[in-house]
Amino acid sequence: MPDTLIEELWQGAVNGSFEPGERDVSLVEGQKLQVALQERWRQEGYAVGGWKLGMTSGQSRDVFGAGVRPFGFILEKRILSSGAELKCSVIGKAGIENELCFTMGAPLGGNAARDDALKAVESVAPAFEINQRRIVGPTSPGMRIADNLSNWGLVVGTSVEVPEDLTGLVIVLSDSLKLAGKQEIERVAALGHIDDHFTSIARLARELAEHGLSLNAGDRVITGAFTRTQLSPGRYTGSFGSPIGDVSVEVQP
Fold it and tell me: Which CATH class is domain 3-167+190-232?
């Protein structure tokens, strides 16, 4: 494993900017680099509190290849509660996406199937994923995986019991600081938009096991984006309707 590249990835994550140049790594190599990057964060005292599965929804689905679903990690210190305040001056160029955040009530191993994931999930909450656009210039999909799929952090609302049906949700992203009549940014119906959440969680558990990692009780898991927009100053709300509820975040300059 090229230690210099891992250090560059880590410095890029710390500073919010990473220029990979002409480096080209495969999808498999990119996932291995990301696991090494995760260990680099651990060495600095940053534990992992959650996970994401990428390329599962909307226009991003299959963008790295048919059926390719890379994983990423979420630092525990960057899992924030609804109503949190963020600063563009700290995060830099970024995007904000509405996601469902599942909390694991039990561990899930390398042989997990969908029904196992359904039983292991304890609750679900409305959430925002914050994606920091660190990479400067064009690069390969493998390098984007190595860069932890752009994740910066997560804002999570109140957890509720998992409803029997998640396909009927309609998610609305709005900004209450925008001019009257312009508050709604995007509206997305869940049906047909995203992979089955529990199939994704089971796959995540299997993928983690292949890298010597595990999905444990208490871990937060996000399974793909619904609505999204560029991060700029505003007061954002993601509304998932009953019984999921809302999540909000205040973004300052």
Answer: alpha beta
Judge contact between 79 and 156, C-beta under 8 A.
Answer: yes
| DSSP secondary structure code for residue 47 in this structure | -
Q: What is the DSSP string of 123-138?
A: EEEEEEEEEE--B-S-
CA dihedral for 130, 227, 67, 141, sign (positive or negative): negative
In this model, does residue 2 exceed pLDDT 90?
A: no
- Per the CB < 8 A criterion, the answer to whether 202 and 118 are in contact is no
3-state secondary structure of 72: strand
| Rounded CA separation 5/225 (Å) | 29
Q: Is the pLDDT of residue 236 over 80?
A: yes
As a whole number of angstroms, the distance between CA 204 and CA 220 comes to 12
What confidence score (pLDDT) does residue 202 get?
98
Residue-level pLDDT at 3: 83
Nearest to 156, CA basis, from 237, 234, 247: 247
Q: Is 45 exposed, middle or buried, given 0-12, 13-18 or 19+ CB atoms closer than 10 A?
A: exposed
> Is-contact 246 239, C-beta < 8 A?
yes
The CA dihedral of 32, 33, 39, 40, to the nearest 10 degrees, is: 170
Portion of the chain with pLDDT greater than 90, in percent: 94
Domain ranges of the chain: 3-167+190-232
Look up the pTM and report it.
Answer: 0.96
Task: Please report, as a single letter, which amino acid is at residue 127.
Answer: A
| Peptide bond between residue 243 and the one before it cis (omega within 30 degrees of 0) | yes
- Residue 105 contacts residue 217 (beta carbons within 8 Å): yes
